[in-house]
Design brief:
There is one protein chain. This protein is 45% helix and 23% strand. It is built from five helices and five strands. A five-stranded mixed beta sheet has the order 1-3-2-4-5. It is globular.
Length: 121
């Protein structure tokens, strides 16, 4: 599946309209971002059931600010409208596969319960 370019105009629609979205925050001038891009693109070919998206932090500064992106590349995973993973740095292929596997295994009912519990404290 090809990667979706996220903008402030389509972000909510893409993220809320899909159960599992990986988001790569990047910029064209960023060396590690360019190194991570082929790893990310290859993973998108292997996991056609997931949505792989990219946010160009230069073109979309509002989105980068909204998610407090301080370092790029940053990978974020959103499942059922809950951000379950966010980590800066270019991941090697094996690490990316591991993160995707762990994210797939999460019990989202447990995650939502934890989020609710945290809000009440």
């Amino acid at each position: 599946m090809s990667t979706v370019e996220l903008t402030k105009d389509n972000f909510d629609e893409v993220v809320s309209g899909n159960e599992f979205v990986l988001i790569d925050f990047w910029a064209s001038w960023c060396g590690p971002c360019r190194q991570f891009a082929p790893v990310y693109d290859a993973a998108s070919e292997r996991h056609e059931d997931l949505v792989f998206a990219k946010v160009d932090t230069e073109a979309q500064p509002e989105l980068a600010a909204a998610f407090e992106i301080r370092s790029i590349p940053t990978l974020m995973i959103v499942r059922d409208n809950v951000a379950i993973f966010a980590q800066p740095g270019a991941l090697p292929e094996a690490a990316l596969e591991d993160v995707i596997g762990q994210a797939r295994k999460l019990d989202m009912d447990e995650v939502r319960k934890s989020v609710e519990d945290a809000k009440q404290k």
